[in-house]
Amino acid sequence: MPIIKSSNGINISYTEYGDRNGEPLLLIMGLGAPGSVWEKHVNEYKKHFRCIAVDNRGTGESDKPAGDYTTEQMADDAISAVDSLGIDKFHVSGISMGGAITQKIAIAQASRVKSCIITASWAFCDNYMKNVFEMLKTTRSNMSYANFSHMFLLWLYSAKFYSGNIDAIEESIENNINDLSPITQHAFDSQAAACTSHDMRGSLDKITAPVLITAGGKDIFTPIECSEYLHKNIKNSHLEIFDGYAHTHHWEDLDRYNKITFEFINKNK
User: Fold this and answer.
1) For 211-221, b where at least 16 C-beta lie within 10 A, e where not — what string?
2) Given a cut of 90, is residue 170 above it in pLDDT?
3) pTM of the model
4) Structurally, how many domains does the chain consist of?
5) What is d(CA 195, CA 190) in angstroms, rounded to the nearest whole number?
C-alpha cells in the first residue's frame, strides 16, 4: 500500500485497483472507514477504471494526528494522492463524509474534476445531525467496540434490509470486531468534528462538474432532505433516490448503485 506525504505534511495511504490506462476514479469513504471498504464497488469499477481508494487521515495506514480534522484538510490529502500518481483529470466519488470531502475537491480542483458522485451526504449539519455525531462519539467511547458496531449498523441499514439479510449483518459485525486496527477513539472524534463543521452553504454553486447525488429514502442518519438540498443548490446535478433503502443504499441495492454510477462516469469521460 503506497504512502505519500500530503500537502498538509502527513502520511496518507492509498490503494490502486484496475487498469492504469482507464479513467482515473478517486474513491473517498465515510466516517471511521478505510479505503478498503470500497471493495464491493471496486470489484465492478476495476474492470473499467483506474481506481484510487484513499485512507482518510485517522484510518487505515494513514497518519492519525491529534486535534479536530476538517473536510478541507481531507480533500487536500486525497488530492495529494492523485498528484503523486501524476494524474491530471479525474472523477471523484465519496460516500457520507466522503461525499462532503468530494464537494471540497470539486471546488478546489474544478478544472481537473470530470464528474462527481455524492452518496448519502450533506452540505451542512443542522441541530439534528450535529446531535447524531455527538451521540456517536459518546456511545463509541462508552460501549464495547462490538456493541457499538451492532448499534451503528442499526442506524445505517434499513429495517427491511436488516431483517432480510441477517447473515450479512452478522458478518459485518464480526469483521468489525476482528479488525486488527480499528479507528482509535481520538481519530473517530476528529473525523466526526470534520463532519459537523462541514458547511457549504453559499459555495455549492461553484461546483461546475456534472454531479450524481444518490440518497436512501429511509435514511435516518443523513435524511433525504440533505441530498435534496445538495441537488437544489448544485447546478449540473441529478438526484437518484433509492426508495425503501437507508444510508447504506449503496450496499443494500449494490447492483443498481454500481450500474448507475458506472454509467454516469462512463457518460462523462
Assistant:
1) bbbbbbebbeb
2) no
3) 0.96
4) 1
5) 9
**Residues 206, 18: Cα–Cα separation, whole Å:** 31
Q: How many CB atoms lie within 10 A of CB 180?
A: 4
Q: Which residue has the higher pLDDT, 122 or 147?
A: 122
Give which of 227, 204, 199 is closest to 214, Cα–Cα: 227
Largest CA distance in the chain: 47
* Higher per-residue pLDDT: 217 or 170: 217
Q: How does strand 3-5 pair with strand 11-18?
A: antiparallel
Find the domain containing 166 and state its range.
3-267
Distance CA 66, CA 92 (A): 27
**pLDDT, the chain, mean:** 95
What's the CA gap between 231 and 211, in Å, rounded?
A: 9
Phi-psi region of 199 (alpha: psi -120 to 50; beta: other; left: phi over 0): beta
- For residue range 58-110, list pLDDT tens digits in order: 999 999 999 999 999 999 999 999 999 999 999 999 999 999 999 999 999 99
Q: Which cell numbers hold the place of 24? A: 482515473
List the end-to-end C-alpha distance of the chain, in Å, as a whole number.
Answer: 27
Q: What is the CATH number of the domain that holds 7?
A: 3.40.50.1820
Any idea what DSSP says for residue 113?
E
- H or E segment and range at residue 93: strand 90-95
